[in-house]
Write a structure and sequence with these properties.
Layout: H1 2-11, H2 16-39, E1 42-47, E2 53-57, H3 69-82, E3 91-93, H4 96-99, E4 113-115, H5 116-124, H6 129-140, H7 143-156, H8 179-192, H9 194-197, E5 204-207, E6 210-213, E7 225-233, E8 237-246, E9 249-258, H10 261-275, H11 296-301, H12 369-382, H13 395-399, E10 405-412, H14 415-428, E11 437-445, E12 448-458, H15 461-473, E13 479-482
Antiparallel strand pairs: 1-2, 1-9, 3-4, 5-6, 7-8, 8-9, 10-12, 10-13, 11-12
Length: 483
Amino acid sequence: MRQALSGFVSKSPFSIKAIMVAALAVTIVAADVASALAAKSAAIVVDAKTGKVLYSADANGRRYPASLTKMMTLYLTFEALAKGRISKNTPVPYSAHAASEPPTKLGVRAGGSVPVETAILSMVTKSANDSATALGELLGGSEDNFARMMTAKARQLGMNGTVFRNANGLPDPGQFTTAHDMAMLGIALREHYPQYYGYFSQRSFLYGRQRINGHNRLLGRIKGVDGIKTGYTRASGYNLVSSVADGDRRLVAVVMGGASGRSRDNQMASLINTYLPRASTRGGGNLIAKAGGDNPIKTLAKVFLPKHDAPTPDEKPAVDDTEVASADDNAADDSTSVAEETKPVIQVRKVKTVAVAVMAPAPAPQETASQIEATSQTVAAYAEPAPAAAPAVDPVRTSSVPSGWVVQVASSPTQSGAQALLDKTTKQAPKALADASGFTVAFDKDGVTYYRARFGGFGSKDAAWKACDALKRKKISCYAVQQ
């Protein structure tokens, strides 16, 4: 065998040495790509009373959100609390999928549960990935569906540069955001749900007999800092969103792509010290529209969700890129504290205050044909039936997804064709479909993908049948089906 192998190598046009050199080169290139991505920083400082951008550095450049993702998971959790869909004591069940998420995590076993409030506290302090997934499954029926809800809510808030793929921020090449969008979300959390915003200032909490400490080292060290969230993966670098209040002045600042927890914290301290005195003492009123009643499917249908976008790589980073309890955002730099009097350690560019309200969404990127197709698939997937949520939660009201009885009018070999059929049917029978929402569902038959054109939003079988009868009277073929 050894002789045969030796003969093969000697006759091969590539020697083992050449192969090893090539493999090393590929490894170096991959490492350079990853390090270049992580090294790209972005930052923004926004006057949270007027919406003026006081400082901006590549604020609309796309970055990995890491655990900043949990800000949107918490936004939707607060929304469900405010609307009475869940309470602070509602049990959050941990599925096998949620329990298997890598650290940092709360460590609840599969089949176990904790109250909603405990899940929230574990996310704002420990940045628990398992709790984020469990909450996503509770509210959306599945984490995939919850990610679609997150993206839909982002669009409703004007976050045009953000796409979510999971509830916790673990590495996914299709999940990205911008510093601008994270600032908008940070402002929206306080404006829309002030009754729950205090959770972000929690520095520790008791879980049984264990005291769990938080990752945000600026809390209690920089005067006025009251949250919001840290984040880290190897691909994203060190991220931080901070809210600061001093008298009548208020800022929200974002730093993304820091080289270390210490440098990120020092950069944030520098930005706060520089720009807080420049913030207005006047202003007021909500800067971010709440937009709670829009149909998320219609919202998604208006945007294009690309499968990939530079600078995100095609390969999914390794699992060890996640936030690990022994190597979290600040563990390596915990010996260095940041005091209120911290001197700036970066050179902050002096920029003229730009009177641009943060609630004005960033311009959406130019869409390509492949991005449009990706959008079609996303909208179709959003309309698929979600698995049943926990018994304590109304799965229909909570997931905001067409379920129950729907009316199908046709199918088409293309998503655009199915959408055209929906538009035509809506125009032909506006009264019958006044309370319905059109959507498409992809399905495969004999290896070919087709798209069903359906209308959802019917509260019962009778309502769906009645709508279908009205369509038939207008010579429109249809049938009612439960999904």
